[in-house]
Model the fold of this input.
Amino acid sequence: MDLFEYQGKQYFAKFGIPVSAGDVAHTVDEAIAIAERVGYPVVVKAQVQVGGRGKAGGIKLANDKSEVSTHASNILGMDIKGHVVKRVWVECASDIAEEYYASFTLDRAAKKHLLMLSAQGGVDIEEVAAKDPSAIVKLHVNPVVGLDGATAKRAAADARIPAKALDGVADILVKLYDCFVKGDCDLAEINPLILKPTGEVHALDAKVSLDGNALFRHPEWEAFRATEELDDRERLAREKDLQYIGLDGSVGIIANGAGLAMSTLDVVNQVGGTAANFLDIGGGANAELMTAALEVINSDTKVRSIFINIFGGITRGDEVAKGIVEAMRRVELRAPIVIRLDGTNADEGRSILAEAGIPASKLISKPTMLEAARAAVDIAKGKVG
Amino acid sequence: MAIFVNENTKVIVQGLTGGQGKFHGLRNRAYGTKVVGGVTPGKGGQDVEGIPVFDSVADAVKATGADASFVAVPPKAAPAAILEAAAAGVGFVVCITEGIPAQDEARVYATLKRDFPRTRLLGPNCPGIISPGRCNIGITAGEIAHKPTQGGKNVGIVSRSGTLTYQALFELKQQGIGVTTCVGIGGDPVPGTSFVDCLAEFQNDPETSAILMIGEIGGSAEEEAAEFITSTVTKPMSAYIAGVTAPAGKKMGHAGAIVSGGKGTAQGKMDALRAAGVKVGANPTEAGQLMAQIIASLG
Done:
């Protein structure tokens, strides 16, 4: 789950990382009220989860009330690379002496935490990495050891951060690491991390991505989930607790297991079709879950056929079959189902489907993934039979 | 021979009294696996269809001599359950639990490395391991796995995805090809056992003649495998990588399956494997057919 800048800054602040005084505004009046409270000059920043806000005119300095009003009204509602700005962050403008970069991620290859630190901040770190890899210090942190101030300070010195900023940077690195670990982040990034002329070090931006698996121990994340940008199909799927990603094609996909679902998309593509979605009903799919999955697919008006691809492990074929029969009783499906069922209790599942008396125009069973994909794509393209 | 497990492996199920633990623990036993005990704190002394339940892994190991554990507990409890098994001296721990936070996985992995280097963790979020006809730990439907043929050419399977693991077993069964061991390493960011670990074991297993590998988008495990194949693996291989059509920046169900910053694409992984001499199929069926050709060419 990716956070907006303002949420990232609020998250940072909880771990003691210094950020500029500011708040989020949904209207011009709110923006003015915040500016009056924190004091001029302020920066008005578009809150979108896409890069290049500044170039698009989504970040503006305002010296007084009328400038805040002008900028906030221009930025709110602005379209930045397909993202419509619904909120702005208004914060106290900072004087900047120097700009650095700092981030923590999990290095999957090393199976350790990875600090990336550079004295060249404020620009795209990928560009720095391409132009001058030696400008980025990479330090692995063992999760059972953690990061102490002395190690952080050495890393900062290695990154050629000047002496006057070392203590401030090291202090923030330790706090950012704490935020990354205890805050269950996939990514905690500050770019730029700034040195002010007065000598303080401070996070001027915040890029935070949270690990959805840790939601159970972070009830406060519910507020972040509420602002996630989902389309209607994705919102319905979330309500039903389904792993769903909306796509643009015409073959609705339901599969059990992420790998099989991905593979189903690939196979549909290979036989000339396009998938309308990714939907993994996961392990332990039952009648309730299958009904929910079909309801979500059915809400997508582009869907012309529904390909259910089940290979049973935890998922039991009889439960899947019961779910399909039940769902077809509850919902008038807009498109026919092509099903391929194998694995645990597949025979029982196939007999449940056969005995349910569903007409062949609504439910077609195919023995293999490829044949089922071809049938689903043919129906989606209007080539029935 | 098989890798990691064999017909003598004695298994306890952590969470045997829970829904998943009971269902799959009993199925594993019905398959012929030596399921010798279960662990549920507070339920020691009970039994599940004749399988004794213990309060702790240490008690279970002491009473049964178990050398493997099947962890089937929810995400909140799984990290502690894995470490409890390791602390009790269990050498092979299979964790099927889906939804463990990545920070917990990284901590468990590092703790095992530091404190319990002799314990191998398989998973989490994996289907488990099956050596057809000998041992099945996890959630694989045993009947879809073809037993290795005596004196014939048999295949080892390693996969990041659960259902694609079954798909692979199924494809080989359709082709009449025996399987020595099928290992599902799981789709999470920090798996306890990697492709490379499994490839090294298969390379050294005299019963395994060829290896089928199933990967997916995200991370660099397939690229690392390709390097290892180039340097060390002499047995012929086929592979399939899921997620060619996956959009960038979206987690495709698995916590680990994401293309980000142009890295971890299916195409990059397929290219790396092809360069290492692996025959790469465009779908699981094709990977199975390629394996059938490999086996036929081995005579």
Q: What stands out?
A: Chain A touches chain B through 52 residues (CB under 8 Å). The first strand of chain A starts at residue 22 and ends at 25. Residues 21-92 of chain A form a domain with the Dna Ligase; domain 1 fold (CATH 3.30.1490.20). Residues 163-182 of chain A form the longest helix (20 residues).
